[in-house]
Design the sequence.
């Protein structure tokens, strides 16, 4: 007879890990199937920011920014070994599209949404200190704003959440690839390949947290449920020697005005990110030549040392995939809210998760658990995820 789990989760990215933690903390039996490695998908290829997303204010995503800032505060408390506050700088030049008054307004709103605590302070860097800003171009520079946001190591954060879930009893099968599933009246039959053999198990609820693969996996679950129209958008980062010492620089691409981060990362400098539509196998995503040129142009514009051809070649690069609602216009302006869908409104057997942010993993996982709770047996809770400390190892 097949083993029956309360919840089977496909994917050990930040969302699969978070829902595993939430379900295990609520006392449920949990199995996570991961086809490759923990955080093998977008959860190790992000910009590594635990942030409210200052730029989402421009597209009016106030709810998302408020929730993200709340989660940032919580992560700084619960995961101090993995999430740290960082100083961010926004230089404003004569040619910069976002003018000082707009930035001041945005930063004020950001501070208000953060709850006006000590992390919400912002200001401008005095002109006599500009020379200390990591070789930032000062020609035509008019003002430099500073504020705070947080940085993490996305891969290690995901691994920490998996360990937290495991400490509460969740099990991880790795590598284990989910091949498909059949939804019954009260249970789901899940098929997967593990340890060289095809296997089956039963679940009260199946959670599809397969990231960029989630749409394809949904197509292998019978009977088929409606999947929202989605688009995969690739984002690339380049890595250079010589990390910025003062913090993260938040600059505008000279080409299209998009916001780009230049930040310290594992003792190096990381610059990203791009937004290019992606078609194909998510496992094959890699930076394209046009993205490398785009990011090199940003570095050359703002940090003159990169105008030296010998320094303009990155030492490494990586790309990841965003899952965004399909739509017209530039992906940059598309909603970053997470989409949670179920096969039916009452007592769902399947929950799919599309898109979202690293920052909001815990809040989104709590929402996901609340949606599937009516299908799960009542169990004594073991812990609350807003109190579980996450350790680096
Ligand atoms: C370029 C870029 C920059 C970003 N920067 C930020 C940022 O700075 N801050 C922020 O908050 N958010 C950021 N994000 C968003 C964030 O990274 C993602 O929303 C998040 O990592 C998605 O996690 P996930 O668990 O849904 O998917 P993933 O991390 O992709 O995990 C999905 C997992 O499912 C597994 N899987 C797939 N199919 C199967 C199968 N059939 N069987 C078993 N396993 C399977 C995959 O191997 C993978 O490990 C960024 C995203 C991108 C692309």
Sequence:
């Amino acid at each position: 007879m097949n083993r029956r789990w309360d919840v089977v989760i496909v994917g050990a990215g930040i969302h699969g890990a978070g829902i595993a933690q939430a379900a295990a903390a609520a006392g449920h039996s949990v199995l996570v199937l991961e086809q490759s490695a923990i955080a093998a998908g977008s959860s190790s290829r992000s910009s590594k920011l635990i942030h409210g997303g200052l730029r989402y204010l421009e597209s009016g995503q106030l709810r998302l920014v408020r929730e993200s800032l709340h989660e940032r505060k919580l992560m700084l408390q619960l995961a101090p070994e993995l999430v740290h506050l960082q100083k961010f700088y926004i230089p404003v030049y004569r040619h910069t599209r976002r003018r000082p008054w707009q930035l001041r307004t945005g930063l004020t709103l950001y501070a208000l949404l953060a709850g006006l605590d000590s992390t919400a302070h912002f200001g401008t860097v005095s002109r006599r200190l500009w020379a200390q800003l990591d070789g930032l171009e000062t020609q035509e520079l008019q003002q430099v704003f500073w504020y705070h946001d947080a940085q993490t190591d996305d891969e290690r954060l995901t691994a920490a959440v998996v360990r937290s879930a495991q400490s509460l009893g969740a099990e991880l099968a790795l590598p284990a690839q989910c091949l498909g599933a059949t939804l019954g009246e009260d249970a789901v039959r899940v098929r997967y390949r593990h340890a060289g053999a095809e296997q089956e198990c039963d679940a009260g609820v199946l959670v599809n947290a397969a990231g960029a693969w989630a749409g394809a996996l949904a197509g292998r679950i019978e009977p088929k449920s409606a999947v929202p129209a989605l688009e995969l958008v690739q984002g690339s980062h380049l890595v250079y020697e010589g990390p910025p010492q003062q913090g993260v620089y938040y600059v505008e691409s000279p080409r299209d005005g998009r916001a780009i981060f230049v930040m310290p990362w594992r003792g190096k400098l990381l610059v990203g990110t791009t937004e290019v539509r992606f078609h194909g196998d998510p496992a094959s995503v890699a930076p394209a030549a046009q993205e490398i040129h785009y990011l090199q142009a940003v570095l050359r514009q703002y940090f003159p040392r990169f105008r030296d051809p010998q320094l303009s070649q990155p030492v490494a690069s990586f790309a990841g995939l965003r899952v965004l609602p399909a739509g017209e216009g530039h992906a940059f302006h598309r909603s970053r809210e997470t989409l949670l869908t179920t096969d039916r409104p009452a007592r769902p057997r399947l929950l799919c998760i599309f898109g979202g942010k690293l920052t909001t993993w815990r809040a989104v996982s709590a929402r996901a658990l609340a949606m599937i709770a009516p299908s799960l047996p009542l169990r004594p809770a073991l812990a609350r995820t807003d109190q579980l400390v996450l350790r680096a190892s």
User: Anything to note?
Assistant: The chain has seven helices and 19 strands. The longest strand covers residues 141-152. Residues 10-16, 33-36, 40-43, 45-49, 177-178, 209-213, 217, 235, 273, 320-322, 353, 356-359 surround flavin-adenine dinucleotide (CB under 6 Å). The chain has a mean pLDDT of 95.
